[in-house]
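chain below, 304 aa
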Amino acid sequence: MEKQYEVEEEMLDKAATENPTGFKVIVKEFKKDKLAMGSLIVLAVLWLAIFIGAAVLDQDEIMYVDILSSYARPGENGFLLGADYGGRSILGQLIIGGRNSILIGVSVTILTTIIGIVVGLIAGFYGGKIDNAIMRIIDFIQVLPTMMIIIVIVTIIPKYNMLTFTMIMVVFYWVGNARLVRSKALTEARRDYVSASKTMGTKSWKIMLGGILPNISSIIIVDATLSLAANIGIETGLSFLGFGLPPATPSLGTLIGYARSPEVIADRLYIWLPASLLILVMMLCINYIGQALRRASDAKQRLG
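prediction:
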């Protein structure tokens, strides 16, 4: 029996290392792609500055309304980047709003990826009726007008916060991850090492987590990276429309939303331009990083 377990462990380890993609391959790819390496450094510096800045700032003080400082220009009344119509610091809102948008994007990405992995592995590994039932649920959710439903839910809920908003997004955005994992798990479930493990009586969860998951981890990491940019974009988009975070909670989308006023968009660029540039830089950096990870997961596309 002990020998059997050793054989099982050896087979699962072999399956896990069968895919040549690994941390060293990713590092090598980033060294070859200077743009991706630069994007990684820029993104790390930006996020570090945002989180350190947000940690020392007082949100209540930043969001305190001071009509006398309304639309103060950069450098006036002690506002480095100016103030909005309520006399609130643009720089403070930019830092705290950036942190909020990043936290929501990262939280949604992590939760949807975990749910997608669990649901996708179960559907792909077991197949048959279980797969059919799960796929019908996924198909149903994917045909729903997700954005409109989120707007309706946010409108109905009288009081909500970042956690509530994050959970609302998670409910609808896990299906894409689940479909991707399921398609890859279906292929892996037909491999010889999975059949051999089943024959030897290895538990299903052990095959899924120890054999299949490591072999599809690279594509999951790539998808999660690109989903992060999309989730930050969705949050800022909803906040821009006025259906994202509450007005008292800073968001990059809220800052850009001030540009809906013709007067602001024409004469007060300092209110909405910094947030727009911050989002643009973050999206570009995340996408360049995601492209490098995608190449690292495919031997035919690697630069290194």
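The chain has 14 helices and no strands. The radius of gyration is 23 Å.
thats it, cya
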